Amino acid sequence: MSPALIVWAPRVLSVLRIVAALIFLLHGTQKLFAFPGPPAGGALPPVMSLLWVGAILELVGGLLLLIGAFTRPVAFILSGEMAVAYWMFHAPRNLYPTLNGGDASILYCFVFLYLVFAGPGPWSVDAARNKA
Q1: What is the largest CA-CA distance in the chain?
Q2: Tens digit of pLDDT for each residue in 40-78?
């Protein structure tokens, strides 16, 4: 493997975490604040409903992952959330993710699971805390 690839691998891990967190965060803002647009059904989820709890996890967890704070436990929780979302809301529609709309849930589930093991990368609050 190229030395340049080895040197950049931890930084690209941080970029993966940041980009995934930004996109994930938008799912929470969409469900809670109708930003950048209303949710698919048009209505915001009722407070304390399962969808509302999921939106809170997406908002708070997305923000924590974005800055790389408490990355491993947050990623573990969000990975589980995405597994539950897939099996509760997508899989009952159809077995195939491309037909049931659950491909993003599966991808987030495994990206977050990877972050549990790989950590946040060097550009994170966690890394800064560990240096101090």
Answers
A1: 52
A2: 888 999 999 999 999 999 999 999 999 999 999 999 999
Note whether 25 and 63 are within 8 A (CB): yes
Tokens of 31: 């469900």
Residue 61 confidence (pLDDT): 98
Sign, Cα dihedral of 70, 30, 105, 9: negative
Sheet strands (E) in 1-132: none
Which positions of the chain have pLDDT values less than 70? none
Q: Which residue has the tokens 């999921």?
A: 54
Cα–Cα dist 122/26, whole Å: 24
Gap between the Cα atoms of 56 and 107, Å rounded: 20
How far apart (Å, rounded) are the C-alpha atoms in residues 62 and 58?
A: 5
